[in-house]
Amino acid sequence: MLKALNWRLQARRGFATAWAKPFQVAIDGPAASGKSTTAKMVAQRLGFQYIDTGAFYRCITYEVLSREIDPTDPRNEEQISNIAEQAHIRLQTLFAAASGVSKDQDRILHSLPTTRVFLEEQDVSSQIRTEHVSQHVSAVAAIGGVRQAVLQKVRSIGAQDDARYVDGSPDSKSSTEGLVMDGRDIGTVVLPHADLKVFLVADSRVRAERRLLELIKSGATPAQEKLDIDAVQRDLERRDELDRTRKVSPLMKAKDAMELDTSGLTIETQVDVIVQEVYRRRKSAA
Ligand SMILES: Nc1ncnc2c1ncn2[C@@H]1O[C@H](COP(=O)(O)OP(=O)(O)O)[C@@H](O)[C@H]1O
Ligand SMILES: Nc1ccn([C@H]2C[C@H](O)[C@@H](COP(=O)(O)OP(=O)(O)O)O2)c(=O)n1
């Protein structure tokens, strides 16, 4: 009843002002399945806010490694949890000018929104994406105290009651209309009542090829990073195993999530499937 009234109001006043609770899209899945690329594009197409929860775990890992603390030693768990609790992390997503719908993968990637990540107001966007951080992040993310601290930080963004962490896009309506959040436990723990839950999967060889291409494009030559396709695939599978088997909020598909295998899909198609599903659910809730 209340929902129907809201949707009628929406028709008259526009989506941004009518719906008090933003439409929540939760995207989970294993490493390099396409979560962040898809989530950013969905957010851009719908004018929604985008929150990369993996960035929080990466920032904490970066800080832990900078202090030369071993994240795999259980004796360090309390110290690492304290670092997580005290860390001030802020995301700033900059949306590109409306690019319309394109089928050209390079053009699509070029017009992707960019997320800058600040740790204690220092821009650490590139430092948190190194292989060194990637190799240790699953161990840090498995610590209960770290998950508790990150959960608190990202939930407060999801509830829209703390603007400190996300500056949002230059388009202010994006933070009120809806929200796309990606990670490992968004549909199961962070946003259990999300309006749409998506679980992205892809063959591990395909994911390794994509990740390798991404690393090469970012300037890391295979020789520098000692990378080859088998090593990248092994590392992705090792991280997935750690993420799936940890005790606290492991990576898993929520019962009510829609599974999407991106192995044979173009980026444009996977974005389109989700955007159409958001439209369909909005319509049926009206
Ligand atoms: N359908 C697709 N076809 C080709 N490349 C893709 C596809 N989906 C994602 N990618 C690429 O794969 C890489 C990993 O995607 P990303 O979104 O970073 O994954 P995740 O956030 O799940 O780790 C990126 O370089 C991205 O551009
Ligand atoms: N909600 C989340 C998000 C990320 N994590 C963990 C698991 C991942 O190994 C790391 C990094 O996540 P991120 O999404 O940045 O990693 P990939 O881009 O998929 O390689 O953080 C998590 O446990 N829960």
UniProtKB/TrEMBL annotation:
<keyword id="KW-0547">Nucleotide-binding</keyword>
<keyword id="KW-0808">Transferase</keyword>
<dbReference type="InterPro" id="IPR011994">
    <property type="entry name" value="Cytidylate_kinase_dom"/>
</dbReference>
<feature type="domain" description="Cytidylate kinase">
    <location>
        <begin position="25"/>
        <end position="278"/>
    </location>
</feature>
<protein>
    <recommendedName>
        <fullName>(d)CMP kinase</fullName>
        <ecNumber>2.7.4.25</ecNumber>
    </recommendedName>
</protein>
<comment type="similarity">
    <text>Belongs to the cytidylate kinase family. Type 1 subfamily.</text>
</comment>
<dbReference type="InterPro" id="IPR003136">
    <property type="entry name" value="Cytidylate_kin"/>
</dbReference>
<dbReference type="Pfam" id="PF02224">
    <property type="entry name" value="Cytidylate_kin"/>
</dbReference>
<keyword id="KW-0067">ATP-binding</keyword>
<dbReference type="GO" id="GO:0036431">
    <property type="term" value="F:dCMP kinase activity"/>
</dbReference>
<keyword id="KW-0418">Kinase</keyword>
<dbReference type="InterPro" id="IPR027417">
    <property type="entry name" value="P-loop_NTPase"/>
</dbReference>
<dbReference type="GO" id="GO:0005524">
    <property type="term" value="F:ATP binding"/>
</dbReference>
<dbReference type="GO" id="GO:0006139">
    <property type="term" value="P:nucleobase-containing compound metabolic process"/>
</dbReference>
